[in-house]
Every structure is written in structure tokens, then in C-alpha cells.
Amino acid sequence: VLTKRIAVLPGDGIGPEVCAEALKVLEAVSERFGHQFELDVQLMGACAIDATGDPLPESTLQACFEADAILLGAIGDPKYDNNPAAKVRPEQGLLRLRKSLGLFANIRPVTAYEVLLSHSPLKSDRISGVDMVIYRELTGGIYFGQKGRTEEGAFDHCTYTREEIVRIAHLAFQAATTRRNKLTLVDKANVLETSRLWREVVQQIAPEYPSVAVDYLFVDNAAMQMILNPKQFDVILTENMFGDIISDEASVIAGSLGLLPSASVGETAALFEPIHGSFPQAKGKGIANPIATILSVAMMLEHFGLQEEADLVKEAVDYTLDKKVLTPELRADHPFTTEQVGAFIANYV
Amino acid sequence: VLTKRIAVLPGDGIGPEVCAEALKVLEAVSERFGHQFELDVQLMGACAIDATGDPLPESTLQACFEADAILLGAIGDPKYDNNPAAKVRPEQGLLRLRKSLGLFANIRPVTAYEVLLSHSPLKSDRISGVDMVIYRELTGGIYFGQKGRTEEGAFDHCTYTREEIVRIAHLAFQAATTRRNKLTLVDKANVLETSRLWREVVQQIAPEYPSVAVDYLFVDNAAMQMILNPKQFDVILTENMFGDIISDEASVIAGSLGLLPSASVGETAALFEPIHGSFPQAKGKGIANPIATILSVAMMLEHFGLQEEADLVKEAVDYTLDKKVLTPELRADHPFTTEQVGAFIANYV
Ligand SMILES: CC(C)[C@H](C(=O)O)[C@@H](O)C(=O)O
Ligand SMILES: CC(C)[C@H](C(=O)O)[C@@H](O)C(=O)O
């Protein structure tokens, strides 16, 4: 029996709704297994800007430092987009949170659920059986380099140190050894010096994992292969900017954007969130799919070492998919609401 | 009746084969309409490294400067890949050619051919009717910024000047006015300063094209939308690196990688090439699809102001598709060879 403290950041748009359902499921796990989860709910994102002027208030950051794990809903509000003059943006809070907590590895499993194949934009034979996990570097590269304006224009600097590559590369290789023993590095080594460094480091580390076959793909080719033959991928390793693009591309091929969880981990901290955004148009309508957030809770349980509990949550989700207890984007006729899906899964647990 | 000088760079892999067929078609145009095309065939890419040590020998560059247009096959050879130590790479020749000639706009039309819908990895309803053109900035950004190593790692600098954005933005807006009057800027303005500059410049220019509706998409979202709903796109405008990724992604959704041409233009120079690579495994087998290169010749004819001639080449290609005179990747039973497809199209012309 464990006691864990969890910082909960529901965020904006549909974030609070999907978080509420994920917490229902966590509560059910707690009841069934006797664990104690202490929740500390905090503001972050546009709602935090509205309330405090800061997308990541000091108290929120503090709560995250003190927690064993963080559950995030989603952040972002259209009133801060398309406005190059906006000085404060919800995204800044997210970037600062990642950097402050040292969450250097973003981990995104992408699975094709057989019952959902008809919802994929891809033909079923291309995606049936897809099962990959993407390791995206999350606190380096062009996201965090120097940026600014000059007389004539603007600049963004991309930098990587060896050490930044080494630590996430080990995580990705280790993951490969527990899976199908294949690792694909996605880079642009024919053009970028940082990519050549990534390739060098990965080539140096590879001998430590003799069971893992390593493959190298230029990012433009990877963007094509993701559509042409996504089954070829097992573990993908890549830098921050390419990971942003490739992992979002990967997330839609399986037709299950609302089902995909993610973990962002560092030496000590760990954050779990659905990969979908705050989807403001859907806010308050009861149509948001809570499953991605619920599966993020399953990743959190695994992170706590609670494998049985995590497996039970995943089993509950599979059952829900089988029974077609689904929100409207996956079931047009007689769809279920966000709350009904959450309750069904919590009940199974 | 025109006289034009064309530098021909067949390049590596299947490059020479597809160029040969495109030149057959150009010859047919010349015979039918009485134009004179003077060809100047030159080395470039891996074959140029092998012959001279330089992927872009001085004589090749000189020929390109003196030509009215350049036709490129494809460059690249596996022996120069996956070798971070290789000091000379075929790609360097291409990048230097683009920069030396000031080819700042890469233009890629992506069309879904109805007869090929069954070959798309996407379901037909998603792609039927897709018709977009991508304007990728080609001589700025992280490709051409300072790059190098430091004690601990490596760096690549991305810079853009206002002027670099202005000139391609005008081309893209002009294209939109001759099409469906929609322009989508793809950037990462929530993170990058250069992207915020792109957004600013595009917002400033937009009023000069009141008929054009402007849309802004973050690149990660664009990578998703390209799969979920590619029909929404008319003209896409984007910077160099994002353009590399998004245009390659776009090229496979229609199931017709071997059919897509491109133009790269500057103030004075213009280069035409298929978007596919050198595909070394297919070299010499007669299985390479020459249509992308033939359609690149059609774009060249348009560039010369020869609209009737260009339309005739496109009509010939449509006829070829209708009659299913196709290479193996598009026709498994009784496929035609590279030469047969080229001859069929040249003959129609
Ligand atoms: C909101 C944005 C800064 C963020 C990113 O680009 O990292 C998001 O797209 C993501 O992938 O988590
Ligand atoms: C070969 C490479 C340097 C090039 C690029 O990235 O620009 C290619 O991928 C392209 O898109 O023409």
C-alpha cells in the first residue's frame, strides 16, 4: 500500500472535464487496492494567466516540486493565439514547467486499437498492428536556445550537448530491449550539425545494447514512412522540434487522438497528460474523450511501480472500447458523455 | 518559336533514367512546336564526387548560371549516408546550388489523381479532390545558418530576415489569387521567434491581397491536418525546415510519390526536379516512374511562358494514367518500363 502526492493541473478548455474522469478512475484504484493518493489541484495555463497574470504561478510550480507525480489536463486558449503581440502565453507556462522540473524525456506510445480501425484516416491494412513508442527530447534544442530580434530579422538557436542526448538515448534503448528491440533515430544529419551529433552519440551508445537494431531516418523521410508503413516502427528517438511534429503526425494515423497518453520524465519529476489539446470548442459539452487522460493515469501508476493497477486500468479501457462506450467522435449514433465513459471505466476498476 | 538553354543534371541512382524520358518528351515538344532546346548535360551529386571530388563542380555551376532553366534528376548515394565522418556529401552540392543561384522558393503542387486513389495509404474519401501547392522557403533558416561544435556539443542557428519572408510570401499570395484564394502559413509561432516574424510579415502583406483568406497553423497541427483533412489546403507557405517535412508528408498522402514535380525559383534562375529521391535500389531496372520528371518539364515550359505546350504534356500524362501505362509501383500486373512510359507520353505529344 502506497501513499503518493499528485499535483493536478486541470488547465483550460476540456482539461478540467477529462481530469475529473481520470481522478474518478484513480479514486477507484485507491479504493480497490488501498493506496492513498493526495491530490493538490493547481492553476496552470490560460486560466492561471486570467487569475494571476502568470501561466505558471509560483504556488503551482512549488506544488509540482513537492509532488510524486503531476497530472495535467490540457492548456491553451484561442484568445492568446494569432496574436504576436501577446506578451504572456499559456505555452510559456508549459515550457517553463518542463525546464524547471527537468522533464527531458517525453514518452508517447501509439497503439492502433482494432475496434477503432474504421476511424483511422489510413487504410486498415496499413495501421492494423501498429505499436510504437516515441521518445522525444523535451528540454533542449531550438525550443530553449537563445532567440530574439535583430535589425533585419529574427533568430532561434538550436543547441544540444552530448549529455542531453546521452540520457534520453539510454531511456530509449532500454525501452527497446523490453519491446521489439528496434530503435529508429529521426534526425536531419545531412544538413544539421546537431543531428550529426545525435547520430554520433547514438552510434557510440548502441554497442551497450547489442540486442537492439538501430536505424537512422531523415525527418522528411520519417514523415513519409509514418504514413506509408507505420508498422516498421518500434521505438523512435528524436530531438525536441522533430519529436513535436512526428509524434503529432503519429497520433492521428491510428484514428485515436482522444486515446493517446503521454509521460514526461526527468531525474526525479514525472508529468502525465493526454496528447490532445484543450479543444476549447468542446468545453462544457460533455463530448470530450477522457480515455487519453485515464491512460495517462495508467502510465503514472506504472511509474509508481504499480503494474497490476496499471494493467487493470488498461483492461478497463479495452473493455470500454469493446463495449463501444464511446464519446461522439468515435461513435456517432447514441454516443456516451465524458462522464459516462469515466464512470464506466471507474466502475470496472 | 523560342530558343532556350537548359542545364541537365541527371545525378545519381534513377536520376539519369527518369531524365532521359523527360528529355524525350521535351524533344517531342520541340518537334511539334518548333522550339529549340539546347541541352548542356553536367555532373552533380555523388557521381560528381566520384569523378571530381566535388558534388557541384565549377563547370556545373557555370552551366547552371548560363542556362535559362535547370533540369535535375535526383542526387544521393547510400555510401555517403550514415557516415557522420564523411566530409563531402552529395547534399552539399544541392544546398550550394540553391544558395548560389538564389533559388529561394520551392514550389510543390500535390494533386490526387482519381485513377490512383486506390494506391493512397489514406482512405479515398479523405484525399479525393486534394489539390494544393506548397511554397517552401529554400535558401534561409536553419539550413544555412551558422553551425558547428563546441566543447560540450553542437549548434545550428536559424535566422530569417524580413526581406527573405516578404519575397516568397508575395509569390505564395499571388499563387493563391489564381487558385482558391486560401493561404495557410505553417509555423511554430508559440515557440519560435523566427515564426513570430513570419506571422507578422504575412499579416502585414495580407491586406495587399484582399481576396485571399489567410490561416495560421502550428507545424505540429499541420502534420496532423495533412492526414485528417488534406482537402482544406490550397496554398501552404512555410519556412525551409518545416517545408521539408510537411511537403514530404504531403507527397505520400495522394499515393503518387512518383508523379509529383517541383520548381525552385529565384529572381532569375529556375530549377525543375521530381520530388522523389535517387532510389538507388531501383537503378538500372527500368522500374522507375518518369512521370514526376516529365511533369517537372511541364512546369519548366510554363515558366518559359509556353502554357499550351505545358498543358499538352499534362494532358499526355493524364491519358497515360487513364490507359494505365504505368510502372510497377502503380500497376502490379503487366507493368510498363520506365522507357515505355516515357515513349508513350512523348508519342502522345
Ligand atoms: C504547446 C506547445 C509548446 C507544445 C510543444 O510544442 O512542445 C505542444 O505542442 C506539445 O507537443 O506538447
Ligand atoms: C537532400 C536534402 C538536403 C534536401 C532538403 O532537405 O532540402 C531534400 O530533402 C529536399 O527536400 O530537397
What does this structure look like?
The structure is a homodimer of 349-residue chains. Chain A is built from 12 helices and 12 strands. Chain A is globular and about 50 Å long. Chain A has 2 domains: 1-104 and 266-349, Isopropylmalate Dehydrogenase (3-Layer(aba) Sandwich), CATH 3.40.718; 112-259, Isopropylmalate Dehydrogenase (3-Layer(aba) Sandwich), CATH 3.40.718. A 10-stranded mixed beta sheet of chain A has the order 2-1-3-12-11-4-5-10-8-9, with helices on both faces. The first copy, chain A, has helices at residues 15-33, 46-52, 58-66, 90-101, 124-127, 162-177, 193-205, 219-228, 240-253, 291-303, 307-322, 338-348; strands spanning 3-11, 36-41, 69-74, 105-111, 131-137, 147-149, 153-161, 182-187, 213-218, 235-238, 261-265, 270-274. The longest helix of chain A has 19 residues, at 15-33. The mean pLDDT of chain A is 95. Chain A starts with a strand and ends with a helix. By secondary structure, chain A is α/β, with parallel strands linked by helices. Chains A and B meet through strand 6, strand 7, helix 6, helix 7 and helix 8 of A and strand 6, strand 7, helix 6, helix 7 and helix 8 of B. Bound molecules: 3-isopropylmalic acid (2 copies). One 3-isopropylmalic acid sits between chains B (91, 94-95, 244) and A (190-191, 220). One 3-isopropylmalic acid sits between chains A (91, 94-95, 244) and B (190-191, 220).
